[in-house]
User: Fold this.
Amino acid sequence: MPDILIRHCTLHIVRRGGWSWGEDPTVLARKAASVLGGLLERRFAELWPESADVEIVAPIRLSLPFYFSELAEASENGCEGGRAHALQERFRAAVDQAIREAVNAIPSARAKEPQVSPEPKPQPDEITASPFEKLLKLLLSWLRAGALEQILRDVGERTVEDWHATLLSIEGERSRGADSSRIELHGASRASRNQPIPESTHTPFVIDAVARAVRTRALATRIDVLSTRIISIIAAVEESGVGAVGPALVAALDRDFPLPQATTEDDSPRSDSPTSTPTIGETPSLPTLVGLPSRHSDAPRTAPRPSRAMSWRQLAKPRAEGGLAHCALPFLMLGALSKMGYFEGLDALLAAAELSEEAPLFATALAYKVLDPPERGWRRSAADTTSAAIFAGLEQPASNEALADFERKAADFLPVLDRAVADALANGHADGSPLLLCEVSGGGWMLAEVDGVFPVASSTLCEAILGIVERFGRPRLLVPASSAGGGLLVRLDAEGFRFVTDAPPTRGERWRRFHRLPHERWYTNDVESPEGPLVASARKLASAYHSLQTTWEELALRPCVAPGDGGALETSMMLVAAVALADLSWNLWKDLGDTDPLLAIERFGDLDARVRFSPGEVLVKLPLGKRSIDLSRHGLLDDVAGVPWYGGRVVRFSGG
Assistant:
């Protein structure tokens, strides 16, 4: 019989009809407690096998009518026959009904053997793909979306170097006699992917790609040349339908876009110095390219890659067994991130930067963003560090030094992950729904979906935010009065953006005023839309702005790295955590009223989970109750594959 622990049980006996309590009423109570307790123990033993580990947190209430004679007979002779047997059957039915009402689920009533989880399904090719294949697939998706050139300008210089080296790494393997790496592409037949690739295959495509790339501005730096070579490689692969880079393609690149000599770290200035990247005046003349304007002044600048001697990855020990995670919220965010394709991009970027083994550090930083704020801003509780370690699949929590070092190495490609979040939200944006544009505490601009308060992007430059608005199709912008200064409204109007604000016009501004109730007062530059939709949007302004401000302030209290060391990682983790939390809240409670990211923290922050690691899966067992039922009903406990720090294991959820 399995061990059963009932934390609290109350028995109420209500007399109906003419029978009395007897000379000693406590005798009846003792008999009822003994008989009903025994029946409860027996029924629970039938419901769950010995190896089962089940926890029910919802109250279980049952109502059982019985006759005094039934209770007396069961107390003296047991429940195997006579009137006492009828009492036992009614009790079994009442227990089953009570559990169904409490958790809306019950295992087989006659389960005798432990249920065996199905064998893990074969993992997708992407999980075991090479860094080349992962990166190629990601870059192809950006090329098809017309975003590749912009992304190459946004990322840091070291990331551009890493991507170029990863794409050309296959050429070195071919020169040693290895087969070419292949990846399934649109338009590529199975035969072409399984047959040797002629070395002349890419030549016409390279020529076409280079001809289309001829522009009006000279390539000024090594990074410009690397970016051009990357674009040419991806364009050639896309047109040929062959997922490989062969010697003919490399030769064409070297002929048309020769690389200048890279400076070494020992005798060159730092990469953030104005002279850190050599010009191409010493190289043969090159075609000129457009679409590669000078890089943003706020693009990440690359620090020298640190030594990997005795790095964190050599000291960290993967978690062999599971444990109790005091907060299940990090695991609940995985589904939302997987749906938006976040993990696929993260996996490719980590592989290209040779940081795949440090993916648990990314997981640790993400977990700290939703766990309890540390005391004094830096001292975390043992429960939080243990929960973060379990989520990251580590035997011991990652040190703050390791997290800070990871931030420095990952800062170059974090803008790519932030863009993936914005693109996913843009793809799901509802026509006619406004966006919130505002400044937040601590400085910087933010863009957010008003419905559900999904943060879209954060930047110190308003220009960058407006560029993202373009990807949403220029919807109406809600601008609070606190953010409307500095000529912002005039600029929005001049650039053709429609806005609604509660800031009265200043001298020289002539905005349309509208309201529905006497105390309401808003302004807009939209002179065509009817008043109804404008009022509906304007009424969301104050609550959405307050929710976004509060969310950003609360997440800032949960540093993923000790204060002052987080840098770009802090902002990126705040963004992705807030979006995942907003998705949870929206899916669960959008029909009940307004939602925001903090609602998920408030309602799931104390939900724990027992986690078990096995070779093929990570099993997350949530306590049975209303919260786990709601999550399951809304499809938020589906299996999640492709999480980079779990080494190909599938995350599965269960109750109990």
